[in-house]
């Protein structure tokens, strides 16, 4: 059995948002792993049902936002007999603690797993100023 | 069965109701509250059943699907991300490890015709009803 301590249920996103959605649909909070390294932060999110064309990733200042759009596949002429999970979009926002080098962000999506590598911006180099002896 | 028998039972035996009841029994055998991982949706029609489940990030070779009579078993495993030397987890919410789930279906399955596909992290298993199990219409021969 998968990690028993974890919830198997999908969590619905809070309804209070800055803006209202134009499409009426459920929105879930994806489960994520965040791994912090010296030079980069890795964010891994489970967003089953989303492919590379239906995911939006934005970084503005230090806010990382992930939105995955899911088009539910409903089998024709069939009825839903058991429904243990709901289908909907995914949305999550993070505040990043460090300055991110926007140009070097890498994002990959495979089998419903989004992996983001966020390299840290190089700190303004400390310049050593040599002082020459006056004449 | 005579009509009086139906009256005695009080209702027709609805296979789907039975199915849902047995599925709940299966679930109860595991954790008392939530359903067992992975969560499933089951679609049905007269001649087939479609089971879908969200198991992102798996290698299709690590998904094991088997059908024995009316029981579908889905097994699998997913490795967690291994942090490199200078890395550490700040947040860990995603599942990892092995799972196994039994699903009791309402009818026998044509084992040789079961199809499965894995797309965008969603597993879909299509299970056609066994020919021998399908209800037959009996024609009445006239004189």
Task: Please describe the topology of this protein.
The complex is a heterodimer of chains A (135) and B (143).
Chain A: E1 11-12, E2 27-29, E3 32-36, E4 40-46, E5 55-60, E6 63-68, E7 79-83, E8 89-95, E9 106-110, E10 113-119
Chain B: H1 3-9, H2 15-29, E1 40-44, E2 48-54, E3 63-68, E4 71-78, E5 88-92, E6 97-104, E7 115-119, E8 122-128
Antiparallel strand pairs in B: 1-2, 2-8, 3-4, 4-6, 7-8
Please sum up the structure shown:
The complex is a heterodimer of chains A (135) and B (143). With 135 residues, chain A is mostly beta strands.
Task: Explain what you see.
- The complex is a heterodimer of chains A (135) and B (143).
- Chain A is an all-beta fold and 135 residues long.
- Chain A has a domain at 31-72 and 85-122: Sandwich (Immunoglobulin-like).
- Helix content of chain A is 0%, strand content 39%.
- Chain A contains no helices and 10 strands.
- In chain A, the strands form 2 sheets. Chain A has a 5-stranded mixed sheet with strand order 1-2-8-6-5, with no helix packed on it. A 4-stranded antiparallel sheet of chain A has the order 3-4-10-9, with no helix packed on it.
- In chain A, 25% of the residues are buried.
- By secondary structure, chain B is of the alpha+beta class.
- Chain B has one domain: Immunoglobulin-like, CATH 2.60.40.790.
- Chain B is built from 2 helices and 8 strands, in the order ααββββββββ.
- Chain B has helices spanning 3-9, 15-29, and strands at 40-44, 48-54, 63-68, 71-78, 88-92, 97-104, 115-119, 122-128.
- In chain B, the strands form 2 sheets. In chain B, strands 1-2-8-7 form a 4-stranded antiparallel sheet, with no helix packed on it.
- In chain B, a hairpin with a 3-residue loop joins strand 1 and strand 2.
- Strand 3 of chain A pairs antiparallel with strand 5 of chain B, so a sheet runs across the interface.
């Amino acid at each position: 059995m998968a990690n028993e301590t974890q919830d198997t249920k999908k969590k619905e996103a809070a309804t209070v948002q800055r803006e209202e959605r134009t499409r009426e649909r459920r929105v879930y909070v994806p489960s994520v792993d965040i791994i912090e390294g010296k030079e980069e932060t890795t964010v891994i999110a489970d967003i089953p049902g989303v492919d590379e064309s239906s995911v939006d990733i934005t970084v503005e200042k230090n806010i990382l936002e992930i939105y995955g759009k899911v088009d539910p596949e409903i089998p024709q002429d069939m009825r839903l007999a058991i429904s243990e999970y709901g289908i909907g979009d995914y949305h999550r926002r993070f505040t990043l603690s460090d300055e991110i080098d926007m140009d070097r962000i890498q994002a990959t999506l495979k089998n419903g797993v989004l992996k983001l590598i966020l390299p840290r911006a190089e700190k303004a180099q400390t310049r050593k100023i040599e002082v020459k002896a006056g004449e | 069965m005579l009509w009086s028998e139906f009256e005695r039972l009080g209702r027709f035996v609805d296979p789907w109701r039975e199915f849902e009841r047995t599925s709940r029994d299966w679930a109860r055998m595991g954790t008392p509250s939530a359903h067992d991982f992975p969560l499933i949706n089951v679609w049905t029609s007269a001649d087939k059943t479609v089971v879908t489940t969200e198991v992102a990030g798996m290698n299709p070779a690590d998904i094991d699907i088997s059908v024995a009579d009316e029981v579908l078993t889905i097994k699998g495993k997913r490795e967690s991300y291994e942090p490199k030397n200078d890395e550490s987890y700040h947040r860990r919410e995603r599942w990892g490890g092995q799972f196994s789930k039994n699903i009791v279906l309402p009818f026998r399955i044509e084992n040789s015709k079961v199809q499965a596909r894995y797309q965008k992290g969603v597993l879909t298993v299509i299970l056609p009803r066994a020919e021998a199990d399908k209800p037959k219409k009996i024609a009445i021969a006239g004189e």
